[in-house]
Design brief:
Blueprint: H1 2-15, H2 20-38, E1 53-57, H3 58-61, E2 68-71, E3 76-83, E4 86-90, E5 93-97, E6 101-105, E7 111-115, E8 120-126, H4 128-131, H5 135-142, E9 153-155, H6 162-173, H7 180-204, H8 206-222, H9 229-236, H10 240-251, H11 255-274, H12 278-284, H13 290-301, H14 305-316
Antiparallel strand pairs: 1-8, 2-7, 3-6, 3-8, 4-5, 4-7, 6-9
Length: 319
C-alpha cells in the first residue's frame, strides 16, 4: 500500500510538472509514515479534533428544498461540482454553480449549498492544523492564490479530472486519523495550484499575473488599514495608474473596486456572523466614525446599512 501511494503521487505530480523537490518531499513523508505505521513505531497523530477534516458527497445533499449549511466558516473548503447544477451561498451572496468547476473558500465564510438531484461532486473541508502546517508553509501548496478573491474558481473539464478523482478516492478510503490523509490533501492542493497557474498564465501572461496575485495577497492583509489605491501601489512599487490598469485587464474591475468590495464583504460578515452594530463595524474597519462608514456602505453597496442589517438579522432568525 505504501509504495502504491508513493507511485501514484509521483505519477500525478510528474504528469502536471510539479517541482521535483516538492514531490520528493511529500512522497518521502508518505513513505516514512507508512513504514513507521507498518512496523508499529510511534509517530505523530493528526493535530486537533476530527472536525478539522471531512469530505461530503454532493449526492448526499441533493434534492433538498432549502440550502444546507456545510460549514460555519471554521475551515478552508473546496466545493467541486462535477455534474449537475446548484447554488452556493457564501456569507449572504448566492451564486449559481457550473458543472466541471471547483470553488474555493477561506475560513470565516459561512457556506451553504443547494444542489439538484443529479448533482455529483464533493465538499472537502480542512484546516491548517489538520495539514500540520503554518500559514507561510501553506502558501507553498497553494501559491497564495487558490483561495483569494481572484482565483477562487477553477474549471476542470471532464476527462481532465482523473488525478483529482484518484486523490479524493484515496482520502475517502482512509481513516481520517491516518497520517497519510493530510499528505494526500497537500498533493491535491499542489495539483490545483499547478492547474490554476497554467490557466492564469495562458490568459494573462507570465508577468502581469504575479502583480495581480501580489495585490490580492496584500489586500487581504491590509484592507482594514489601507483603502486607497495609491497605498497599494506604493507597497508594490508601481504607479496607481499602472496598478489599476493591470488589475482591470486581468479581472474586469479596477483595484479601487476590489478594495471597496473587500471592505463591504467584511462588514456584511460581521453583521451575519456576529450581529455587530454600525458603530462596532465602523470601528473594526478603521473608519473615523459611523457617519463616514454609513455613507461608504451606501455608495459602494447601494444599500442603506441599517436596512440591510435589519433584513439580514430577520433572515438569520429563521436559520
Amino acid at each position: 500500500m505504501d509504495m502504491y501511494l508513493v507511485f501514484n503521487v509521483l505519477r500525478i505530480g510528474r504528469r502536471f510538472f510539479l517541482p521535483v523537490s516538492l514531490l520528493w518531499y511529500v512522497t518521502g513523508i508518505i513513505w516514512c509514515k507508512c513504514f513507521l505505521m507498518r512496523h508499529h513505531i510511534a509517530t505523530w497523530s493528526v493535530p486537533g479534533p476530527i472536525q478539522t477534516f471531512r469530505i461530503q458527497c454532493l449526492s448526499d445533499l441533493a434534492g433538498k428544498h432549502d440550502p444546507v449549511l456545510v460549514d460555519k466558516g471554521a475551515m478552508y473548503t473546496i466545493l467541486w461540482l462535477k455534474e449537475g447544477s446548484g447554488t452556493y451561498i457564501a456569507d449572504i451572496d448566492a451564486v449559481q454553480m457550473d458543472a466541471d468547476t471547483i470553488y474555493m473558500f477561506k475560513p470565516q465564510q459561512a457556506l451553504s449549498v443547494l444542489v439538484a438531484d443529479e448533482a455529483r461532486g464533493y465538499v472537502i473541508h480542512f484546516s491548517l492544523d489538520f495539514l500540520g502546517v503554518k500559514p507561510d508553509t501553506f502558501r507553498q501548496f497553494t501559491g497564495s492564490s487558490l483561495f483569494d478573491i481572484l482565483s477562487g474558481t477553477l474549471t476542470i473539464p471532464a476527462g481532465q479530472d482523473d488525478s483529482l478523482d484518484v486523490l479524493v478516492s484515496k482520502m475517502k478510503e482512509q481513516d481520517v486519523n491516518d497520517p497519510i490523509v493530510p499528505e494526500l490533501m497537500k498533493v491535491m492542493l499542489l495539483l490545483l495550484n499547478q492547474k490554476n497557474n497554467v490557466v492564469s498564465e495562458r490568459a494573462n501572461g507570465y508577468g502581469n499575473i504575479f502583480l495581480v496575485k501580489k495585490f490580492f495577497n496584500l489586500l487581504e492583509q491590509k484592507f482594514l488599514t489601507m483603502k486607497m489605491v495609491n497605498n497599494y501601489a506604493r507597497e508594490l512599487s508601481v504607479t496607481p495608474n499602472y496598478l489599476n490598469e493591470m488589475i482591470k485587464k486581468n479581472t474586469g474591475f479596477s483595484a479601487r473596486h476590489h478594495i471597496q468590495q473587500r471592505v463591504i464583504m467584511e462588514a456584511k460578515r460581521k453583521i451575519m456572523q456576529e450581529g455587530l452594530s454600525m458603530k462596532e463595524i465602523a470601528y473594526y474597519l478603521g473608519f473615523d466614525d459611523s457617519y463616514h462608514f454609513s455613507k461608504y456602505f451606501k455608495n459602494v453597496s447601494g444599500s442603506n446599512f441599517s436596512e440591510f442589517r435589519k433584513q439580514t438579522m430577520h433572515q438569520l432568525s429563521f436559520i
